[in-house]
Amino acid sequence: MVSSCEQYLETMGIQVWRSKNCQATFVKDTKVSKTKEIWAELEQQVSNCTLCDLHKTRKNVVFGAGNKEADILIVGEAPGATEDAQGKPFVGRAGLLLDAMLATIDLHRDDVFIANILKCRPPNNRDPLPREVKLCTPYLQRQIALIKPKIIVAVGRIAAHFLLNTNQSLGKLRGRIYSYGEYNIPLLVTYHPAYLLRSPREKAKAYEDLLRIQEML
Fold first, then answer.
1. How many domains does the chain have?
2. What pTM, to 2 d.p., does this model score?
3. Rounded to an integer, what distance in angstroms lies between the CA atom of residue 15 and that of residue 117?
């Protein structure tokens, strides 16, 4: 059966043997279109989510942002007040510091994808409850499966504990490379920008973590 691509080529007087490139382009475009559709469906699911009580107090869902084909996935804890208001991850002072941290290794936030364990803000910025984490987990896992990052960076205690299924202190967890999930994605742990704003003496250690990430790219 002659494809529409082949018909187009024949109409233009182009030999059909060149149609393989056209077919390859069609396949690629179809895959890209399907991936965009999957992302859109996932974001809609998250926006409509009412699985836990956090939907009652949120202003906006914070789905995540950045390059959906990124080599680096940054995972934080949960949205804060500013993130909840804007619907974007890591904004405000912590976001500015994250941007500065990325810049030290020649990266922009558009080069990475940023997400959180929870997509909605816990009231008064309390720690996520185990039930909330359990119910929100499939969304993050789906994002990881779609992005297929080369490196996952867990920023902060909550993200590190969840992704590594451990209760060890962040100080003991950082400085090592772990393996995450069925794809054995390299995972590193570092300090949350909000913590670094409160404890600037730890910025040197965070910089060491950034250099390790740069070496792995």
1. 2
2. 0.85
3. 53
What domain range is 76 assigned to?
A: 62-216
Kindly report the CATH number assigned to the domain that includes residue 121: 3.40.470.10
What letter would DSSP give residue 123? G
Cβ burial of 183 (10 Å; 0-12, 13-18, 19+) is exposed
Q: d(Cα 130, Cα 172) in Å, to the nearest integer?
A: 22
Report the C-alpha gap between 169 and 64 in whole angstroms: 26
Count of residues for the chain? 217
- Closest to 194 in 3D by CA, of 101, 122, 107: 101
Residue-wise pLDDT for 166-199, tens only, equals 999 999 999 999 999 988 999 999 999 999 999 9
CA torsion sign for 45, 69, 136, 34 is positive
Is residue 128 a contact partner of residue 77, using CB atoms and an 8 Å limit? Answer: yes
Other beta carbons within 10 Å of 199:
11
